[in-house]
Design brief:
Layout lengths: L1 H20 L2 E2 L23 E2 L2 E6 L14 E6 L5 E2 L6 H27 L6 H27 L5 H17 L6
Antiparallel strand pairs: 1-4, 2-5, 3-4
Helix pairs in contact: 2-3, 2-4
Length: about 180
């Protein structure tokens, strides 16, 4: 029985570590490199690269039923194993484009932190936080799509520069809510 418990414990530690290492949180001053993209390109995709990003949120509800804001953790994440590139199709602009996708997720993580800080929660905190998250996530997805459409997936260099400036300005605007 002891060997079985030991094997179970080792598997728990191994899979727990893999889950944690499966995402890379956004960090100020850190930019993506191609080595961060560990996934396999989608077959038949016309795109040269794809970065998978998103927002995660961990929270605690107090015994009163109200969220404990001090224990809330919101992160913008990059998912290396779900992100890929085609070496023969990339250039320096492609990586900057993918970084901007990650930065857009960070902008929305900051927006989420701001919304959380300003919201007056009730005993219905779980539903209230889900509503806030859905609104932020909808905005994030819309901005990601708009970015790709307007830049033609990094083909339109002028639009790309405008978007980089826009996202940088938003990061600055929401700096008080940086993680």
């Amino acid at each position: 029985m002891k060997p079985l418990v030991l094997v179970g414990f080792c598997l728990f530690v191994l899979f727990g570590f893999q889950r944690k290492s499966a995402r890379m949180p956004w960090r100020d001053g850190h930019t993506l490199s191609w080595s961060d993209f560990q996934g396999l390109p989608s077959k038949g995709s016309a795109f040269s690269a794809s970065s998978n990003t998103g927002i995660s949120h961990r929270f605690t509800i107090k015994s009163t039923g109200i969220i404990d804001k001090s224990k809330s953790i919101i992160k913008a994440n990059f998912y290396p194993k779900l992100s890929w590139y085609k070496p023969e199709l990339i250039d320096e602009f492609t990586l900057k484009h993918e970084q901007t996708h990650f930065d857009i997720s960070e902008v929305h993580a900051r927006m989420f932190r701001k919304a959380l800080a300003e919201f007056h929660f009730t005993r219905n905190s779980k539903a209230e936080i889900q509503k806030i998250y859905k609104k932020i996530e909808s905005s994030r997805r819309k901005m990601q799509s708009q970015f790709d459409a307007e830049t033609e997936h990094s083909v339109n260099r002028e639009a790309e520069r405008l978007w980089e400036a826009k996202v940088l300005a938003l990061l600055h605007k929401y700096q008080p809510w940086a993680g």
